[in-house]
Design brief:
single chain; 502 residues; alpha+beta; eight-stranded mixed beta sheet; 18 strands
Length: 502
């Protein structure tokens, strides 16, 4: 695969020559030593010393990382070594390294991973640096890094070769470091609230837990089809039936649907279920979670997202119907009449596959006229029951569910509701979903008889919620494209190069 790349062939030849000289270009068993940040913090006081005392030859420090810059000056050189924490300047001289300095000049290049050991000092320009007394090549990189000043700017290449993106773009590394901290903080929040973290299957005999088209796979040993998890909901609620009263799972879900700036077919969510609570308790808990994240991550309460200011301490609640009228500007008499709403949507160029019942038409209207206007955190409540097959029916109004969704920055972040624990009601709703599937709705729920059996043993009053981790990270990092917060996003197959393009 490298036959036609002269630069790579040249680096391979250098690695081979090093081997012939008895120098292993792929060393193992070398300690990293200090991180570059630890070095800079440990010896920072040298910069406050008089100029003739801005070094300490009695101290010894070792660092390791990737070379990002080399400047040769005859019998000396300055290089910049980068690791996860930052970048550090290192001074090399033939006086200390002897014959290896000549090897360094000829065979070590930008992109190689090296170890340097020596003492701290401050250069004439005031930069705290390491004066190397020992130097070793640890890994010879045979592919050259992109040119320094232009960097890696090809968006498609950044996603396909994320490793190269991380090498070249510090801000990208910082996004994924923050992502890791967000997930850790979410986990700690729920653990401190007394929730138990659990694991449920990723291959399901029946796809369920959300309205979505599944990925299908095959289990050879069992000789049956399996479906990659759409959502863990029905398994987590089985655990509530079994006696656990507060559970959560940070899970990977798979939905065989389209991709856009906020959807990836493989994504991360946290789902949690809380016995003896209702959806109103979840709304309070969700607000508390957000404020806890801002505090633990030291983030401001006002964030910039998609050229808009979002005030994360300014939560509001509004019902689904009121949102259609007040925010979507749809007259009440139209929003509550299926025939009128259908014609209203058609007139406003909303594509509809066919006539639908009122709840689904309201859902289409919400997507078209409301969602993108929900900038500050907004809990939409009182969803139509027809689009909430797993949620509890409201006691006073049988046409709405005790459900909410949280929208921030014009996008759904969370979905929660008081759980349906009446097995007969759930059975009838599954039957309606089966009818919808038979009529051509690929995203309708399947009948899960075992789940009905579980409910028949009694599930306590319970509330459950799912929060999209990827969208949460997008919000807190200011990224508007989901691929920028997923290390290895789904991509179209790469077209093979034509011979005349090689």
């Amino acid at each position: 695969m490298f036959e036609n790349d002269a630069y790579v062939l040249g680096r391979i030849a250098k690695a081979d020559t090093l081997r012939e000289m008895g120098i292993n270009p792929y060393v193992n068993g070398v300690a990293k030593g200090l991180s570059t940040q630890e070095f800079l913090e440990t010896y920072d006081t040298l910069k406050q010393q008089p100029q003739d005392r801005q070094k300490d030859e009695n101290k010894s420090a070792q660092i390791a990382g990737r070379i990002k810059f080399i400047r040769l000056m005859g019998k000396a050189a300055f290089i910049k070594i980068e690791d996860t924490s930052g970048i550090l300047q290192v001074y090399l001289s033939k006086n200390e390294l002897n014959d290896f300095f000549d090897i360094f000049k000829k065979y070590v290049e930008v992109g190689d991973i090296v170890m340097a050991k020596g003492f701290p000092f401050v250069t004439k320009t005031g930069e705290l640096s390491l004066h190397a007394l020992d130097f070793k090549l640890l890994t010879k990189a045979i592919s050259p890094l992109p040119e320094k000043y232009h960097g890696l700017v090809d968006i498609e290449l950044r996603y396909r070769q994320r490793y190269l993106d991380l090498i070249m773009n510090k801000e990208v590394r910082e996004v994924f470091i923050l992502r890791s901290k967000i997930v850790s903080s979410v986990r700690k929040f729920f653990e401190q609230k007394g929730f138990l973290e659990v694991e449920t299957p990723m291959m399901h005999p029946i796809p369920g837990g959300a309205n979505a088209k599944p990925f299908v796979t095959y289990h050879n040993a069992l000789n049956v089809e399996r479906y990659l998890r759409i959502a863990p909901e029905l398994y987590l609620k089985r655990l509530i039936v079994g006696g656990f009263e507060a559970v959560f799972e940070i899970n990977r879900n798979f939905r065989n649907e389209g991709m856009d700036h906020s959807h990836n077919p493989e994504f991360t969510m946290i789902e949690f279920y809380w016995a003896y609570k209702d959806y109103k308790d979840l709304i309070k808990l969700t607000q508390e979670l957000f404020l806890s994240l801002l505090e633990s991550l030291n983030l401001p309460k006002t964030l910039s997202f998609n050229n808009q200011e979002i005030h994360l301490d300014n939560f509001r609640e509004i019902t689904y119907l009121d949102a259609l009228v007040e925010i979507g500007k749809i007259p009440l008499e139209i929003a509550t009449n299926a025939d009128k709403l259908y014609h209203y949507l058609i007139e406003h160029n909303v594509k509809l596959e066919s006539k639908m019942e009122l709840g689904k038409l309201q859902s289409e209207a919400f997507d078209a006229f409301v969602e993108e206007k929900l900038i500050d955190p907004t809990f939409i409540t009182e969803f139509p029951i027809s689009i909430s097959p797993l949620a509890r029916r409201n006691d006073e109004n049988p046409y709405i569910a005790d459900r909410f969704e949280l929208f921030i920055g014009g996008s759904e972040i969370a979905n929660g509701f008081s759980e349906l624990n009446d097995p007969l009601d759930q059975l009838e709703r599954f039957k309606e979903q089966v009818k919808a599937k038979e009529a051509g709705d690929e995203e309708a729920q399947y009948m899960d008889e075992d789940y009905i059996t579980a409910l028949s043993y009694g599930m306590p009053p319970t509330a459950g919620e799912g929060i999209g981790i990827d969208r949460l990270v997008m919000l807190l990092t200011g990224n508007t494209i989901i691929k920028d917060v997923i290390l290895f996003p789904a991509l179209k197959p790469q077209k093979p190069q034509k011979k005349d393009e090689e």
